Amino acid sequence: MFPPEEIIDLSNPIADGMPVWPTFPPFDLERTDWAARDGFTMERTEMRTHTGTHVDSPLHFIPEGRSLDDFPLSKFMGEGVAIDLTPKEPEEAITVDDIEAFEDEIEADDVLMLHTGWDEYHGLTEEYLFEFPYLTAEAAQYCAELDLKAVGTEGASVGGWVDEVPAHGPSTDVGADESHLPLLENGVIPIEEVRNLDRVLKGAESRRAYFFFPPLNFRGTSGSPVRAFAFL
């Protein structure tokens, strides 16, 4: 077996001050020990399992749904295709028509990566936190009918922002469950907050690659951060 020509990191960095879902507590990373003082260096971290680049399991929205460890490791890697949906405007939906335009490029059991360009807003910005493109219920159902392995997006979620905080109201009336459930009920794994899909596409409208997005070896969780990357 030969090494890939190129490895592209699809993961956002995990660091203090990183964006998290606006109703979550901030990510916390503290250095508790220093080698110069204690003879070793150690950190303590506190975060939700749906923080940074991460995957969802059916348990995220289905009370008796499968957790991540109910799937084989092979579920979190595989061939697939990135498709170019740019330009997308803030709060704009990803529709059936958007994805159907690439139907001839998509194969059963593919990992489908949706490039909207939203990683350019990564940070504590209105666009990244609240106004990311999202799947309509119909588009999510269409993805399920394509018999995909996973669907990746650069936004904070495959579903839109429907909550309210002091500085920002809902961005859509499409409930998060409406975007997630068609995927999760059919064993399609959402991969959220990916980046660098433009580097996968290299100016093309679509490009096939081999994608990896393995979760941590948790038991019984609805999600996990991942180190996602692509082989070209």
From TrEMBL:
Source domain of life: Archaea
Keyword Metal-binding attributed: no
Keywords from the UniProt entry: Hydrolase
Keyword tRNA processing applies: no
The protein's enzyme class: hydrolase
GO molecular function: hydrolase activity
UniProt-listed InterPro entries: KFase/CYL (IPR007325), KFase_sf (IPR037175)
This enzyme's EC code(s): 3.5.-.-
Signal peptide location: none
Matching Gene3D superfamilies: Putative cyclase
The protein's name in its UniProt record: Cyclase family protein
Phylogenetic placement of the source organism: Archaea, Methanobacteriati, Methanobacteriota, Stenosarchaea group, Halobacteria
